[in-house]
Amino acid sequence: MNTSRRNARGEASLQRILESTVQLVGRYGFDNTSIARIVKATGRPASSIYWFFENKDELIAAALESSYSQQAPSRRPWEEFSATRPLLDQLCEELEPELRASESEDPLRLGIMLALEGSAENSKVQEPFRRRRAAAQRRIETWWAEAFSAQAADIVDPSAGIEWMVRLTLAFLDGHYISDVVADYQDAAKRSTILAHALAGAFEVVARQPPSAPLEVPPFEHPHQEASTPEAEGEGADNLLHVTRALVAEHGYEGATMSRICAASGMKRSSVYWRHKDKDTLIKAAVAEPFVGLLAPFLVLPSPTHDWLQDLSSALETFMSDVLDHPDTVKAGLLLKLQRWDPPTSGGSAVLAGSALAEERLADWFKDVLPEEGKKPIRDHLAWTIARLCEGLMLGSALGHPAAPQAVAGLLLPMLTKPLDHWRATV
Q: Does domain 3-70 fall into CATH 3.30.1330.10?
């Protein structure tokens, strides 16, 4: 951005352009936010926009950077670990402010959306999010390294354990940023306690011996993934759904236009409308329904037995395997979930409703696992914990860091046992 021109043309005009751009990107995504749309929204001529910015990418990057600056939190989380204080107390102090849903998270949510949209890959519009995510990851990594140094000093090489704790911490927080649009202080306090015990439980395990399975899955281990490009593979309804899903993953909801869908599927517009009344119902069938289908392992959990933790671990492992096998479904579904429409699209509504149903079913299942009266809060918060972990792992996979299903599932037992033991000791 040309700062000398910025001073000459006035701060108020620039701020209006930046704010309008953020709103448009949140609604239309990167691909379908054009200079023409920004001109219409701001009432400013294109020459005024080009006075400040060379192109659309530079404008969107500056707009996102500005939104981060305006919503900067009052504290920098994960700044320092104290060797003289209990791990659980410090985890609660770090997590509670993070788990309060606020306007300061809106730019993070928008940054995640831009990071997922394939057409924005390698564009400078992803740089503000990447810088902040990298900085947050470094702070969390340093924090856990200090925790290992203080409480697991006998480990010769703690790097694998640190990597695991960073990945789990980011997964839980990412799941929160994606889904917790509303959360009050009371919810944040209860959830931070549950999550602190879950992370402490994982820490106790990996501090003794990190899982033998690798943290990430090599790409060659999943050769049957969905195609990552929207090219036709045959004809008919299945191919139409396939290319629509791939186009949403690449260009977002708005960018997956009917023209692109018809060109990629080789179908005439009339043939597409014969199967689906409009684009929204097509995207619901192509993206929302298979995305919700990934949550099926948590919708059909067996009746609880004494091995209920193993049943839950098996469901998580199945879920993660399905996530790895359906990258376009994951990316496109998360894009629908992150994009806030007013009124909402049927596809976006179906993703939100399906995710909420899976969490509700988990809470009901925990009701049978923990039938004693008065355990409803722990049931709800355990269901929330698993739901956010799953969403965060999906995002990690979509961003190119897929976690090994068996290894993640193996850590679920200590992550649930410790919060349960804490709750039973305090009621």
A: no
Q: Report how far apart, in Å, the C-alpha atoms of 75 and of each of 97, 98, 104, 315, 359 are.
A: 9, 10, 12, 37, 31
Average pLDDT over residues 317-328: 96
- Cα(45)–Cα(107) distance, rounded to whole angstroms? 26
SS3 category, 173: helix
**Token pair belonging to 33:** 């936010």
Peptide bond into 107 cis (omega under 30): no
Output the pLDDT for position 233: 45
pLDDT in tens, 153-206: 787 788 889 999 999 999 999 999 999 887 778 888 999 999 999 999 999 998
Q: Which residues pair with 216 in a beta bridge?
A: 403
Residue ranges per domain, the chain? 3-70, 87-208, 291-412+422-426
CA 260 to chain centre: 26
Specify the pLDDT at position 172.
96
Report, in angstroms and rounded to the nearest whole number, the Rg of the chain calculated over CA atoms. Answer: 23
User: Roughly how many angstroms between the first and final C-alpha of the chain, as a whole number?
Assistant: 57
